[in-house]
């Protein structure tokens, strides 16, 4: 792929919001995208793009109408976040970094709009990420490849708000823990742990 290209995927992370259609420069890039679903990455030229988000099948009521800039040679997960009354677009860079052989790169992305600061711990109590607030994206940390269970706590407390069992992380890959949902309403808190595009996309 030419270095002037970039890659983008979309994530529907707006809790309680119906399925959506997404347009870039008035062309469909995703239709009927469900909550918690990602599109596939697709290549685009770098530059400025207008993004519109509509309720699925309804092009008369725009939910989001904004512009984003995609630099050359970049990878983005563009997330639709916030409850319906505060819905917005949040571009998340998947940075292109070297990864040591035999290791896993893992980061945490807080996308739950009504959940305060959180800590992420392993089942043995080791703290991986601390004091992470809404819309905060941590740096990647290095782990050994394995199957992990994670506990998410309100920051600085022993109040566990989510248990995440059996997350299998493979060597020489990048992963993000997307923390989504609501603490006090439906849909409930949960995580999405996809393989990030910087693991496999070529330039």
Which terms summarize this structure?
203 residues; mainly beta; Immunoglobulin-like; four-stranded mixed β-sheet; four-stranded antiparallel β-sheet; 16 strands; globular
Number of domains: 2
The total of helices stands at 0
Q: Structural class, from helix and strand content?
A: mainly beta
- Strand count, sense and closure of the main sheet? 4 strands, mixed
Cα Rg: 17 Å
User: Helix content range of the residues, please?
Assistant: under 10%
First-last Cα distance = 5 Å
Low-confidence parts lasting 5 or more residues at pLDDT below 50? none
The side-by-side strand order for the widest beta sheet comes to: 4-1-7-8
CATH topology group of the largest domain: Immunoglobulin-like
Q: Mean of the pLDDT scores?
A: 96
How many strands appear in the DSSP assignment? 16
CATH architecture of the largest domain: Sandwich
Structure overview:
The protein is an all-beta fold and 203 residues long. The protein has two domains: 5-93, Carboxypeptidase-like, regulatory domain (Immunoglobulin-like, Sandwich); 104-196, Immunoglobulin-like (Sandwich), CATH 2.60.40. The chain is 0% helix and 51% strand. It has no helices and 16 strands. The chain has strands at 5-12, 20-24, 27-33, 42-45, 47-55, 64-70, 75-81, 88-93, 104-110, 118-122, 127-132, 141-143, 146-154, 160-169, 173-180, 190-192. Strands 4-1-7-8 form a four-stranded mixed β-sheet, with no helix packed on it. A hairpin with a 4-residue loop joins strand 10 (118-122) and strand 11 (127-132). The protein is globular, with a radius of gyration of 17 Å.
């Amino acid at each position: 792929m030419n270095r002037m290209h970039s890659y983008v995927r979309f994530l529907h992370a707006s809790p309680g919001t119906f399925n959506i259609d997404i347009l870039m420069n008035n062309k469909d890039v995703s239709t009927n995208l469900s909550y918690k679903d990602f599109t596939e990455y697709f290549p685009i030229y770098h530059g400025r793009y207008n993004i519109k988000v509509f309720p699925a099948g309804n092009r008369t009521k725009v939910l989001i109408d904004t512009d984003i800039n995609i630099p050359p040679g970049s990878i983005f997960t563009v997330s639709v976040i916030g409850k319906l009354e505060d819905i917005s677009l949040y571009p998340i860079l998947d940075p292109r970094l070297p990864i040591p052989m035999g290791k896993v790169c893992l980061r945490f992305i807080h996308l739950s709009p009504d959940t305060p600061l959180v800590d992420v711990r392993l089942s043995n109590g080791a703290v991986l990420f601390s004091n992470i607030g809404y819309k905060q994206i941590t740096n990647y940390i290095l782990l050994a490849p394995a199957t992990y269970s994670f506990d998410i706590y309100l920051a600085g407390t022993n109040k566990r708000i989510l248990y995440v069992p059996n997350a299998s992380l493979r060597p020489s890959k990048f992963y993000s823990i997307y923390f989504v949902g609501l603490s006090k309403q439906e849909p409930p808190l949960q995580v999405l742990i996809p393989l990030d595009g910087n693991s496999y996309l070529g330039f």
